[in-house]
Design brief:
- By secondary structure, the protein is mainly α.
- It contains 2 helices and 2 strands, in the order E-E-H-H.
- The chain has one domain (7-60).
- The protein has a two-stranded antiparallel ribbon.
- The longest helix has 21 residues, at 23-43.
- It is elongated.
């Protein structure tokens, strides 16, 4: 493990050294991270979903190859 300093940016914009955070603050930070991950999983489409949506959208748009013949 390297000795690189890591900082957490608090709600007020202040950066705090993670090594200096209290156990309670670390616990609350971890809970926040977990909630945000869960929220992202339920609200952000996966790459597969995005690809399917793109193909479906392309299939709904009229196809026109007039540009090739001009």
């Amino acid at each position: 493990m390297n000795n690189e300093k890591l900082y957490w940016t608090m709600k007020n914009g202040e950066k705090i050294d993670i090594d200096q955070m209290t156990e309670s603050h670390l616990r609350n930070t971890l809970k926040l991270i977990i909630r945000r991950i869960q929220q992202m999983e339920t609200t952000c489409p996966t790459n597969v979903d995005m690809a399917i949506d793109m193909v479906e959208q392309e299939n709904q748009e009229p196809y026109c190859d007039d540009w090739m013949w001009k």
